[in-house]
Amino acid sequence: MSSKKKRRVRSTFEDYLKEQGTLEETTAIAVKRVLAWQLEQAMTKRQISKNQMAKAMRTSRSQLDRILDPENDNIQLATLMNAARVLGRELHIELV
């Protein structure tokens, strides 16, 4: 698929979400799903259990479950930064 065609599809999909009034919500959910997936992948790679992760973050297992829940987009930035730090990773956020 050509670059122009990919760009047009993306633009059309974004336009559709804007028309539906769901672009921001959909974007937030997608970002949270990716972050949850990345955290779980990093935990697996480092062989860190949920209990170990929660303890290292100085939080509860239920709080960690909320962080890893791809549907929960109400997580504080400091919490995500703490999770990344425990896993030896960095959290990067940018405005585009």
List keywords for this structure.
96 residues; mainly alpha; 434 Repressor (Amino-terminal Domain); 5 helices; 70% helix
Explain what you see.
The protein is mainly α and 96 residues long. It has one domain (3-86): Orthogonal Bundle (434 Repressor (Amino-terminal Domain)), CATH 1.10.260. Helices cover 70% and strands 0% of the residues. It contains 5 helices and no strands. The protein has helices spanning 3-20, 23-45, 50-57, 61-68, 77-86. The protein starts with a helix and ends in a 10-residue tail after the last helix. The relative contact order is 0.11.
What is the topology?
Layout: H1 3-20, H2 23-45, H3 50-57, H4 61-68, H5 77-86
Classification by helices and strands:
mainly alpha
How many helical elements?
Answer: 5
Distance between the termini: 25 Å
What is the fourth-level CATH superfamily? lambda repressor-like DNA-binding domains
The residue ranges in which pLDDT falls below 50 over 5 or more consecutive positions are none
Short synopsis of the structure:
This protein has 96 residues and is an all-alpha fold. Helix content is 70%, strand content 0%. The longest helix has 23 residues, at 23-45.
